[in-house]
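User: I've been trying to design a sequence by hand for this structure and keep getting stuck. Would you show me what you'd pick, starting by listing the structure so we're on the same page?

Assistant: Good idea, let's start from the same input. This is the structure you sent:
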């Protein structure tokens, strides 16, 4: 918690007060599909087996995708939601995998390519320093500096990505809810879709810390 700082306060609050825990899996599915999310049948069947979860955890159960711990490769299960544990398995690939997840739910609407993580300014013994992320947006180069925090992803990168979308005139943003897996459940929505989602579920969506 000392390392996470402000993030820990958000996480603890949302873990304790996650909306949707009182609803059945089928009831949550109906609410979500009546709002802005359309699930493939295979994903629906997987979600119907979940119980007792709030909306953020419920969606995270499919948004986490499949991670192969032997190869370090991640594959999405759905193009509707991305979720992650912000305490990562491999520090050296945390940000390329993060962007893979983001792009899996935004597709061609966000033309980000060539994501490279530079760890040359990380103090590996202390787990501190700077991690620099370089990327191209429709061919235009951007650099995002993040804080190294042991094996935790710097969640402020979400705001940095949304700032790029704003600069580039994109309508939609990446909206996050904190889930009970030490991380974020992320949707790609327009501001109006985000408002509809919040009203329908009682969840709080954030575009960044």
């Amino acid at each position: 918690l000392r390392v996470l700082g402000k993030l820990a306060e958000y996480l603890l609050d949302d873990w304790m007060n996650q909306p949707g825990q009182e609803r059945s899996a089928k009831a949550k599915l109906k609410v979500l599909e009546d709002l802005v999310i359309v699930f493939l049948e295979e994903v629906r069947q997987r979600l119907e087996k979940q119980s007792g979860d709030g909306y953020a955890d419920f969606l995270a159960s499919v948004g986490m995708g499949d991670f192969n711990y032997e190869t370090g490769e991640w594959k999405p299960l759905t193009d509707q939601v991305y979720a992650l544990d912000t305490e990562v398995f491999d520090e050296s690939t945390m940000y390329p995998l993060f962007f893979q997840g983001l792009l899996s739910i935004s597709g061609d609407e966000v033309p980000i390519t060539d994501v490279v993580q530079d760890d040359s300014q990380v103090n590996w013994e202390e787990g501190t320093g700077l991690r620099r992320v370089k990327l191209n947006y429709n061919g235009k180069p951007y650099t995002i500096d993040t804080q190294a925090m042991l094996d935790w992803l710097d969640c402020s990168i979400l705001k940095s990505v949304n700032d790029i979308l704003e600069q580039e005139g994109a309508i939609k943003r990446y909206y996050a809810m904190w889930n009970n897996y030490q991380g974020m459940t992320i949707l790609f929505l327009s501001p109006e879709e985000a408002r509809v989602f919040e009203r329908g579920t009682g969840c709080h969506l954030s575009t960044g810390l």
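That's my pick for every position. To get oriented when you compare it with your attempt: The CA atoms of residues 159 and 172 lie 13 Å apart. The radius of gyration is 17 Å.
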